[in-house]
């Protein structure tokens, strides 16, 4: 009996993650409602909170999948990239732009999720981020052989944040942003200056 | 009589902007409620919509003030900056960081305001942004004398977005960001590479 209950619980967990992902991608994180998800999954509202502590925990699970998908897309782009370190940074950044454009709302949810003030991000989040950052670190160690690991880690975060900012304001239709058609060109320009 | 009505309306407008600014800075844009503002201003809920078309229009008016304050802070920093173009970019970016840190929620509201899809930002927003961008354009024309105005405008937006991204992820306590203590250092590093 316990096995059956656990299996049902696991199935509901998967279903809720999939429904939440779809709703986030379609309507955005801020329009996510537990009531809608209960309807989607054909379960009682309370059943959601048996599986996830709160809606935020469910969004974290969706974000874990998004981080995986993002990492896979970056890795795939990197596999076809030239050996040149600057080119590798550019190829990864363009892949980041593509992922953000094609999965806009789930990408935004990675950063828009509520974090209780002062609370560190969960370990899986740090691990997924760490994987992305390892991709950036490799070409940086070629470009800046004199930087120690700590300085490279800072530069990695600064570079990631720069590209994130260009993509964010560009895709957001904010007038402060680079027009979408020139996003990749400007990312390439900034990154090629870095290595010069 | 008409003059009295207009004066009262203008006074209510100013009061609502000030109350909204305080509430945004204290509680964040997403917790702004018309009901609370009516209480703050001692007016009926409907009176707000006599002055502003909707709550978004009121937030736009708050953002106009924030843009002014931001521009003034950047201009002040620039007045004390050395003649060196790269140093000027760095000084302005540090001023941007300072403004964002000291006015976190009103700064976030500049970018988090709802924009109906496909609708361009209002003219005053573009003008305020244009003023900020003019500050950036000046040193860029020294650093890159061969770029035409169009290319400089693109580079200006890309640079602004880069610095914005570093500040945003850094202040947001997102683990992807540069730690707050190293924000200025990393901004300086990225910008000094640009000019090299």
UniProtKB/TrEMBL annotation, chains A, B:
Residues 33-52 bind DNA. Keywords: DNA-binding, Transcription, Transcription regulation. It comes from the Bacteria. Signal peptide: none annotated. InterPro entries: Homeodomain-like_sf, HTH_TetR, MT1864/Rv1816-like_C, Tet_transcr_reg_TetR-rel_C_sf. Residues 10-70 form the HTH tetR-type domain. Transmembrane segments: none annotated. This is TetR/AcrR family transcriptional regulator. The lineage of its organism: Bacteria, Pseudomonadati, Pseudomonadota, Alphaproteobacteria, Rhodobacterales.
